[in-house]
Amino acid sequence: MSVNPPRVTIGLPVYNGEDLIGECLKNIAEETYTDFVVRIFDNASTDRTGEIARSFAERDPRFIYHRNPENVGSAQNFLDALAAADTEYFLWRADDDLASANFLETAVGLLDAAPDAALAATHVRSERPGKNRVKESGYIADWPAPRVINILRRMFFSHPSWIYGLWRTDRLRHYYHNTWESYPVGWANDHLVLLHVILDEAVVGSNAATFTQRIGVRASSTPPTKVRLPLSTQIENKRTDLDRFRPLCRQAVADRAWSGAERFLLDLLIDRYAAKRVRSSEFRILKLKLRRALLGRA
């Protein structure tokens, strides 16, 4: 580790992660780029998370353990991890996700080479071990096309896990805090943050490294029962989500300077983008209505 202050902070919010946090910490420790500090924010876990994390921190001084005296909620724990960062670069890492050993080395190189960029994204591998599913999502590199085409491609095809890429710390605070003030909702908030970065053309990326998102991998002897809301409530929630999310997307476009053709295309497609990202398209709502009618449910 460098004798100078580290360049990267990895914020790791966790709650009851005893089954996965050891693997996550080991994965980070094996990064080829070593100039980082990991701040573990334990949200008052009731299992062995603290014991595992403290033991790891005792062996590797780059890992710092912090325990909340009480559970502050997931969103606040993520915000606290960002607030504690005092380095040039920052990323969040969930305890159930992993990355290739060259992830940091690749991402730091991308941001160092692009001083105006706010975010470095990589290839994303989404795994659902329980369903034996794997989906590969490559970074969306520029086409030799007008800039609005590349902006639209990233808007519609960016992966939500780009939020776990490497950020310039001050830029992420700007984007994230402004977004959270206007849309303090966990669902689709990541897409709203990414929309601003994409519209600012402030994303760089590479497929030379991989972020691995793991879904449904957590072990549990008593898996939680999935509670389904009444179909009428699901329909109303989708409409409410869209009504809150769509104006903020429109405003993000309106706040920036565009040519006439660019503004026409963005205004034409922004509502479709909003519906896609909150999964509240008319087609989805229609499917719920049909299901309600066929099942005769409220």
Structure description:
By secondary structure, the protein is an alpha/beta fold. It is built from ten helices and nine strands. It has helices spanning 21-29, 49-59, 74-83, 103-113, 147-157, 169-182, 189-199, 231-254, 260-277, 282-295, and strands at residues 8-14, 36-42, 63-67, 89-92, 98-99, 119-128, 133-137, 166-168, 203-214. Strands 1, 2, 3, 4, 5, 6, 7, 8 and 9 form a nine-stranded mixed β-sheet that branches. Helix 7 (189-199) packs parallel to helix 8 and helix 8 (231-254) runs antiparallel to helix 9 (260-277). The chain is globular. The model is unreliable at 221-226 and 280-289 (pLDDT under 50).
Structural descriptors:
9 strands, about 20% strand, globular, single chain, alpha/beta, nine-stranded mixed beta sheet, about 300 residues
Uncertain parts: 221-226, 280-289
Shape: globular
- Main sheet: strands, sense, barrel: 9 strands, mixed
**Mean pLDDT over all positions:** 89
> What is the radius of gyration?
20 Å
Order of helices and strands: EHEHEHEEHEEHEHHEHHH
Number of helices: 10
- Which secondary-structure class do the elements indicate? alpha/beta
* Secondary structure tally: strands: 9
Task: Give the DSSP E fraction (strand runs of 2 or more residues).
Answer: 15-25%
